[in-house]
Design goal:
The protein is of the alpha+beta class and 237 residues long. The chain has 2 domains: 1-69, no CATH class; 84-234, 2-Layer Sandwich (Muramoyl-pentapeptide Carboxypeptidase, domain 2), CATH 3.30.1380. The chain is built from 7 helices and 6 strands, in the order ααββαβααβαββα. The chain has helices at 2-8, 23-69, 98-113, 127-140, 145-151, 186-194, 224-230; strands at 87-91, 94-97, 118-122, 165-170, 200-202, 217-220. It has a 4-stranded antiparallel beta sheet with strand order 3-4-6-5. Strand 1 (87-91) and strand 2 form a beta hairpin. The N and C termini lie far apart (99 Å). The structure holds zinc ion. Zinc ion binds next to strand 4.
């Protein structure tokens, strides 16, 4: 009993409540409260970063494979030569794929009805002829392959070898044949407005990175075979 009495006599201090008044301590307190959220956000950000780091080279590789897969050379896609039995002569020196003959002739007829005279300058060209054009002009003009490829396709890479391409001029302005100036002719304005009705499309427009703008060069996309031939060119460069 003596001992208990003594204990009761001890002056035991009450628990002290400490108030965090100092601004640094308040910040610390807030940090402690929000720390689970911060950790959560930080983890998400880290995970995303890791995923990006891992995926980026893979994506780049995939893109590279797609680009190489379509087999372009200097911006031109490979095209095989049309089988001879599918070629038809529509006028002296102009042969085209049989699928596009009617549509092409109808287009010229309709233009004529509107007072516009279209001239066909070049249709099907064999890979051999394209070889002559590409290599001989290259040496005549003293141009490197890449420069030459801006205005002429390398052999095996020309839409003309498919029989589905046609170069068109204006009969009243022959000086614009194969010239960018063709875009200022009535024939070109008419084609821009009407060619799609006959399933013709300009192949090399102004935003092509590798190949110069060719307002005279149109291709036919009005048959399944033609669509198949030009399928890969629809992919962006
Ligand atoms: Zn052409």
């Amino acid at each position: 009993m003596e001992l208990n009495k003594d204990i009761n006599q001890f002056d035991i201090p009450l628990a002290k409540r400490i108030y965090l008044k100092n601004p640094n301590s308040i910040l610390l307190k807030k940090l402690l409260i929000f720390s689970p959220f911060l950790i959560f956000i930080f983890s998400i950000a880290t995970l995303r970063l890791i995923r990006n780091i891992e995926l980026d080279p893979l994506n780049r590789l995939k893109f590279q494979v797609e680009r190489n897969h379509d087999g372009r050379i200097l911006g031109h896609l490979p095209y095989s030569e049309i089988p001879k039995e599918k070629l038809v002569l529509i006028e002296p020196n102009i042969e085209v794929h049989i699928d596009m003959r009617d549509s092409l002739l109808k287009m010229r007829e309709e233009a004529k009805n509107d007072g516009i005279y279209l001239v066909f300058l070049s249709g099907y060209r064999s890979i051999n002829l394209q070889k002559d054009i590409f290599y001989s002009l290259k040496s005549i003009r003293n141009q490197e392959a890449a420069e030459r490829a801006r205005v002429s396709a390398p052999p095996g890479y020309s839409e003309h070898s498919t029989g589905f391409a046609i170069d068109i001029g204006d009969a009243t302005q022959r000086e614009t044949d194969f010239e960018t100036d063709f875009e200022n002719t009535d024939a070109f304005r008419w084609l821009t407005k009407n060619a799609a009705k006959f399933h013709f499309k300009l192949s090399f427009n102004k935003d092509n990175k590798y190949i110069d703008y060719e307002p005279w060069h149109w291709r036919y996309e009005g048959s399944i075979e033609a669509l198949k031939v030009f399928e890969s060119s629809k992919r962006k460069l």
